[in-house]
What does this fold into?
Amino acid sequence: MFEQTFKNIDDVLWKEAGCSSELDYTEQTSWILFLKYLDDLEQERAMKAELRDQHYDFIIDGKHQWSQWAAPKKADGSFDHDTALTGDDLIEYVDSELFPYLKGFRLRATGPDTIEYKIGEIFGEIKNKFRSGYSLRDALELMDSLRFRSQKEKHELSHLYEAKIRNMGNAGRNGGEYYTPRPLIRAMIQVIKPKLGERIYDGACGSAGFLCEAHDYLRHGEKGGELTTSQLKTLQTKTFYGKEKKSLAYVIR
It folds into this structure.
């Protein structure tokens, strides 16, 4: 499901004047994928809250939620083409309303560790390169067909996305700076042998391959032992630090 959808989105982007390489394809697919994934996550949290008879405050407000602008539905669940933005109207909304709104999360967030701040960071750096609202509409409808609610689905997405980043690294120009082969990363980590409690910093982290592999190394350990709750908190909040100046890396992380 994911593989064919990504191929179909690449076909749409191939015809898009604003995108000219695998790097552009990955960047534009990524911001759409991020918003769809975030919407699925919020819907799942809202459902769990409802089952507990609790209220859930959505991160994205009603007007800018995926179901309002990207994939409006009729009462029977079918796509509502009558109310869906397309053409110049869609590009105008994304460039003039959606991206500025998402960028503003950086200023409204309570701290840098919040998801709100991360949303602001991503959309403060990236740009919409679609120039045809009809192409963007096609890409949105393809992305809306995906679901990210089971572990199997998330694993498949992770596997295919890794392949997409690898293809980007082989695309020429500056693509190689975003992808280092996993065997090379793992060999370097085996030589360094980081320890829990140390800080791990990557000053040009790109798509964060080194940090992800270092996390797996520390999370599972050489002997595969389980970490305590305190150790997990240290691993998740006080271990990994990275810096990257390129906008593409923000969204593909």
Summary: The beta strands are 200-202, 240-242. Residues 2-174 form a domain with the Ferritin fold (CATH 1.20.1260.30). The longest strand covers residues 200-202. The two ends are 22 Å apart (CA to CA).
